[in-house]
Amino acid sequence: MARHIVASTSEIPPGGNKVVDVAGRDIVVFHVNGEFFALLNRCPHEGAPLEKAACVARLTSPEPGVYERSRVGEMLRCPWHGWEFDMRNGQSWFDPKRVRVRSYPVAVARGDELQKGPYVAETFPVHVEDSYVIVEV
Amino acid sequence: MSDVIDRPLLEEEKTAPTRLRIVDCDVHPSLRSTDDLNEFLPKRWQQHLKEFGSHLRTPYLFTTPYPRSSPLIARRDAWPPTGGPPGSDLAFMQKQHLDPLDVEFGILQVLDLFIFSQQNLEFGAAIQRAINDWQLAFWSHRDPRLKASILIGQDGVDLAIAEIERCARIGEYIQINVSPRANEPLGRRRYWPIYERAEALDLPLGIHVGGYGGHAPTGGGWPSYYVEEHQSNAHTIAAQLASLVIEGVPERFPKLKIVFIEGGFGWIASAVWRMDQHFERFRSEVPHLKRKPSEYVRENFWFTTQPIDEPDEARHLRALIEWVGIDRLLFSSDYPHWDFDDPRFAFKAPLTEAERRKIFSTNARAVYKF
Ligand code: FES
Q1: Pick from B304, B288, B272: which is nearest to B208 by CA?
Q2: What is the pLDDT of residues A83-97, one digit of tens each?
């Protein structure tokens, strides 16, 4: 993997992003809470530009009526149909193809595993060195 | 067969095999502000708009009742850099939608000002007329790919007929749009004069789902959630399809073309089978119908594709398409709304090149005579 310096850290404000062309690929680098994440700038569903995605929190519900927000700003909500992806690994958390109640005992299955979708947005390793953001492709 | 996409498509897949110039039957332009209408709206109604605004069958004004997933139900990337709401900047629409997707013709569908639901019929007719003029001046005269529809409020039948005649004399409009949720079901006798004019002028009747007609959108009452309401679009137009067919509109106006817009097509087979089955049993109730409901549906009705249902297996989508009929479907994107379909990736059913061509282009060209 080659290393590409794509920005100085000050160029991408917290909550912001920068689109860079790395080896002919359109890559978007997000800055969230001091961390940087790089993804291919295309939603795996119909190809929407992820640079326009909303950076949202993970919303979970341990039981009806109780909601918890976590990992604020680390989930991407696609600007078109709203599918959600984890910035860290590109994993989709929205699966319109299997929206149904599973029939095995919910009590023994981990809710977060059940909810994972089959789609994965392409991600790239990112480092910060001497205040520069470096993407490996 | 697996149709799960686990990777983004590559550059070469976007362009291969042959690029098809598409007809997009559902493109939403927006007013930058209601001031855009001033040059087309008499002073008296400009003043009315400023002082009293819309008088609708629901209490919501100039907004959708809740954010509906995304502000102004729009794609987050569709807000023009120049300001204004999504769909209000022609240059941006050209750059983001018409040019890259190779749209040969785009049919404009105006939803501003809840145009079909105005209760003050004179005010409604004035803004419908202004918006019909605005569509030409701001859109189709500036980009000939874009085609305007005659918007009318069908509850004021005489006003609607006058507007149809006025626009038909101008000669640039390609269909007549009626309300998806008028005061009464669309098949009712009171609306027939509109259908008669549409047939005589050979202008298809466009019915774009949505809006607030004052009735609950489902037979079971008002939904609690947006996802529930979105689902109800299909029930509403299934009811309108039944009303038009059973009350005998295509029987009386056999050359009338009716296009359901933004209703998808997954529900059609079941609705039509049921009508046919009941028609066999209850023929004596509807002696004015000379043929099976499915025959009218196959000859007088067309359906735009968005929102496409996405079954687990592409072959199921293929089966739905076959039941509805390859020749009945017209591609639509719904740009710039949040549930926009990208013609390059949205249609995951296996289709031959000839079938693609029909759905993405030639069916619409035949219906609208481009
Ligand atoms: S293109 Fe991203 S959710 Fe559809």
Answers
A1: B304
A2: 888 888 888 877 645
Q: What is the mean pLDDT of residues A4-17?
A: 88
Q: What is the predicted ipTM?
A: 0.71
Q: Look at A80 and B340 and tell me if their CB atoms are within 8 Å.
A: yes
Convert chain A into a string of H (helix), E (strand) and C (coil).
CCEEEEEEHHHCCCCCEEEEEECCEEEEEEEECCEEEEEECCCCCCCCCHHHCEEEEEEEEEECCEEEEEEEEEEEECCCCCCEEECCCCEECCCHHHCCCCCCCHHHCCHHHHHCCCCECCEECEEEECCEEEEEC
Interface touch B76/A42, C-beta < 8 Å: no
| Average pLDDT over all residues of chain B | 91
Question: How many degrees, rounded to 5, is the angle at CA B263 between CA B56 and CA B74?
Answer: 65
Q: Is the CB of A121 under 6 A from ligand 1?
A: no
Residue A109 has pLDDT above 90, yes or no: no
What φ, ψ does residue B149 adopt, rounded to 5°?
Answer: -115, 155
A76 in Cβ contact with A85 (< 8 Å):
yes
Bridge partners, residue A25, by sequence: A22
Asked if residues B244 and B186 have their Cβ atoms less than 8 Å apart, the reply is yes
Q: Please tell me which residue of chain A has the smallest CA distance to B314.
A: A97
| Parallel, antiparallel or unpaired: strands A123-124 and A35-40 | antiparallel
Q: Which residue has the higher pLDDT, B156 or B62?
A: B156
Residue A93 Cβ < 6 Å to ligand 1: no
